[in-house]
C-alpha cells in the first residue's frame, strides 16, 4: 500500500501520546529504561523503483526514530544500531546482551506483538551461555560481525563476572517461571499487543513474567495508525482503544453478528454502493454495536476496509472507545502472518495433488495455530479416503507440508525463512470418522445439523484435544519454503 513522507510524522505523533498516558498510571518511568525488542526487515524495490518495506522498518529507519531527541521516557536499552541491524540473529543477540547488561535499569519490557517477546525469551533460553561469556569477559561473540553493532554494544558492555554468575545461576535453574522478573527485577509491566489473535500468548507471558501487567498501548496497521489505550493497566480482555480522529477519516460499517464476520468469502477491500450508504461516522457509532473499520487516509486510500471488526465499548468524553473483536476472515495467525480461509483452501488443494498416484483423496481437513511450540506453527488435521493399495510414504506427506507452505503468502514465508518466527508446518493424519465425531460434538453443543460446516480452523481446546487424540501420524515440512524479498505487500514512497 502506498504511503507518503508526512504520514510518518502523523504516526510519530501517535507514539508520542503513549508515555504521557502510561505515566498517569505508572509513576517513575523516567527513572529507568525500556527493554524493547524491535527489528527491521529486509526491503525490496518495486518495478517502478519505489522502496517496499514493512511500516515499522520505515519508521525505525526514519529520522523520527533514529534522531529522536533525548527523552527520559523513551530511553531504551537497545542502541539504534542493534535495532537497525538487518541480520535478525545479530540484532536479537545484541539487543539481549544490552538488555542484560542494564538489567537493573529496566523498568518496562516489550516488543510489538506478544509473539515477538516470547521469541526473545526463547532466544535467551538457547543462547544465555554465550551471552554470559560476553558479560564475564567484556567482549562480544565473534558471530556478531556487524561493525556498527559491535561498536554500539561496546559502549555498554563492561566485564562483569558478578552479573554473569547471577544470570547463569538464574538461567540454569530447571524452571523458567518468572524469568523476566528474576533477571530484570525492576520491571513494572510488559508492553506487548495481546488483543485479537495475540491473546493466545497470554498464558505463556504470565508464566514467564509471574503475572506482570500486560499492557496493550496502541492499535495500528500498515495502512494507518488508529488509536491508543487510555486505561493501559486494565485486563487484556477489557482493552479498548480510543481512535485519534486526526490519523485518518474514520467510518464504520455496521456488522450483524453471524452475518459475515466468519464467512469464508474473501471480502474485497472496497465497499459497494449499498455498503457506502450504510457507513456511520465516528461521532455516530452506538454503544455495544460492532463495526468494520473503514479508513480514508492522507496517503490516498479511499473508504478502504481495514479488515478489522471493532465493538463500541464506551466513550471518553465524546470520543468512542473500541474493543478489538477480530480480523475478518483470518483463520490462522502466529506472528504478523494472516492466513484466510480461501488462501488455506487453495494451499491444501495444491498439496493434495501429491496423492494422485496413490488413489487417495482428502475427505476433510481443518487447521490449528499451535502456539505451544516456540515458535508457533500451523497444524493441519487431515482425514483421508484411501482407495488404492499402495501405502503413501512419509515423504509424500512431507512434500504436502512444503507445498502448502510454498502456496501461502509472502508474510508467512518471510516469517518461516527470514525471521524464523513461524515453525515448520505440520500435517496430522487422523483416524477415519474423526470429522464425524467433530460434527457430533458441535451438534451436542447446539450447532444446527442443517447448517453445520466443518470449521476450517479450530481454537476451542476440547476440539483440539479430540483431534489430537485421534491423530495416527504426524509429518513436518522438511525445509523452508522459497521466499524472495521482492514479494512484498507494503510499499513506501520515502
Ligand atoms: P499490519 O498491517 O500487518 O501491521 O497489521 C495490522 C493489523 O494487526 C490490524 O489491522 C489488526 O488486525 C492487527 N492489530 C494491530 N494492532 C492491534 C491491537 N492492538 N490489537 C489487536 N490487533 C491489532
UniProtKB/TrEMBL annotation:
Protein name: Indole-3-acetic acid-amido synthetase GH3.6
Keywords annotated in UniProt: Ligase
Organism: Gossypium gossypioides
Annotated InterPro entries: GH3, GH3_C, GH3_M
Ligase is among the record's keywords: yes
Family: Belongs to the IAA-amido conjugating enzyme family.
GO molecular function annotation: indole-3-acetic acid amido synthetase activity
Limits of the GH3 C-terminal domain: 343-460
Lineage start: Eukaryota, Viridiplantae, Streptophyta, Embryophyta, Tracheophyta
A UniProt-annotated Pfam family: GH3_M
GO cellular component: cytoplasm
Residue ranges of every copy of the GH3 middle domain listed in the record: 241-327
Amino acid at each position: 500500500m502506498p504511503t507518503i513522507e508526512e504520514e510518518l510524522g502523523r504516526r510519530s505523533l501517535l507514539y508520542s501520546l503513549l508515555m504521557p498516558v502510561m505515566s498517569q498510571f505508572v509513576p517513575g518511568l523516567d527513572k529507568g529504561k525500556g527493554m524493547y525488542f524491535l527489528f527491521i526487515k529486509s526491503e525490496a524495490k518495486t518495478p517502478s523503483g519505489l522502496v517496499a518495506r514493512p511500516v515499522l522498518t520505515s519508521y525505525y529507519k526514519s529520522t523520527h526514530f533514529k534522531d529522536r531527541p533525548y527523552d527520559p521516557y523513551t530511553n531504551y536499552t537497545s542502541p539504534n544500531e542493534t535495532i537497525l541491524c538487518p541480520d535478525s540473529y545479530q540484532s536479537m543477540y545484541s539487543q539481549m546482551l544490552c538488555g542484560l547488561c542494564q538489567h537493573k535499569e529496566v523498568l518496562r519490557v516489550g516488543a510489538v506483538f506478544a509473539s515477538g517477546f516470547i521469541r526473545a525469551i526463547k532466544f535467551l533460553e538457547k543462547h544465555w551461555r554465550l551471552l554470559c561469556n560476553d558479560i564475564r569477559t567484556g567482549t562480544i561473540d565473534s558471530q556478531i560481525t556487524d561493525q556498527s553493532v559491535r561498536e554500539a554494544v561496546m559502549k555498554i558492555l563492561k566485564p562483569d563476572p558478578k552479573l554473569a554468575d547471577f544470570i547463569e545461576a538464574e538461567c540454569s535453574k530447571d524452571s523458567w517461571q518468572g524469568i523476566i522478573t528474576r533477571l530484570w527485577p525492576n520491571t513494572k509491566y510488559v508492553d506487548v499487543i495481546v488483543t485479537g489473535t495475540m491473546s493466545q500468548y497470554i498464558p505463556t507471558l504470565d508464566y514467564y513474567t509471574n503475572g506482570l501487567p500486560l499492557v496493550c498501548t496502541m492499535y495500528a496497521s500498515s495502512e494507518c495508525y488508529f488509536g491508543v489505550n487510555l486505561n493501559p493497566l486494565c485486563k487484556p480482555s477489557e482493552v479498548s482503544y480510543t481512535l485519534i480522529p486526526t490519523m485518518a477519516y474514520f467510518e464504520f460499517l455496521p456488522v450483524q453478528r453471524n452475518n459475515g464476520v466468519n464467512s469464508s468469502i474473501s471480502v474485497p477491500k472496497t465497499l459497494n454502493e449499498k455498503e457506502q450508504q450504510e457507513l456511520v461516522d465516528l461521532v455516530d457509532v452506538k454503544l455495544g454495536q460492532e463495526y468494520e473499520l473503514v479508513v480514508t487516509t492522507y496517503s490516498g486510500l479511499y473508504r478502504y476496509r481495514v479488515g478489522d471488526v471493532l465493538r463500541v465499548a464506551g466513550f471518553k468524553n465524546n470520543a468512542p472507545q473500541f474493543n478489538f473483536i477480530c480480523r475478518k476472515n483470518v483463520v490462522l495467525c502466529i506472528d504478523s502472518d494472516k492466513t484466510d480461509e480461501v488462501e488455506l483452501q487453495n494451499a491444501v488443494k495444491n498439496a493434495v495433488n501429491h496423492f494422485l498416484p496413490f488413489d487417495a483423496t482428502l475427505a476433510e481437513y481443518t487447521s490449528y495455530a499451535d502456539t505451544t511450540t516456540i515458535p508457533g506453527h500451523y497444524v493441519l488435521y487431515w482425514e483421508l479416503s484411501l482407495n488404492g493399495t499402495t501405502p503413501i510414504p512419509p515423504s509424500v506427506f512431507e512434500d504436502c507440508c512444503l507445498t502448502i507452505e510454498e502456496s501461502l503468502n509472502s508474510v508467512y514465508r518471510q516469517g518461516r525463512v527470514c525471521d524464523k518466527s513461524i515453525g515448520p508446518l505440520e500435517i496430522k493424519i487422523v483416524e477415519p470418522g474423526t470429522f464425524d465425531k467433530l460434527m457430533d460434538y458441535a451438534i451436542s453443543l447446539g450447532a444446527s445439523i442443517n447448517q453445520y460446516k466443518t470449521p476450517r480452523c479450530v481454537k476451542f481446546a476440547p476440539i483440539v484435544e479430540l483431534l489430537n487424540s485421534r491423530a495416527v501420524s504426524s509429518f513436518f515440512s522438511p525445509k523452508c519454503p522459497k521466499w524472495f524479498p521482492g514479494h512484498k505487500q507494503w510499499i513506501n514512497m520515502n
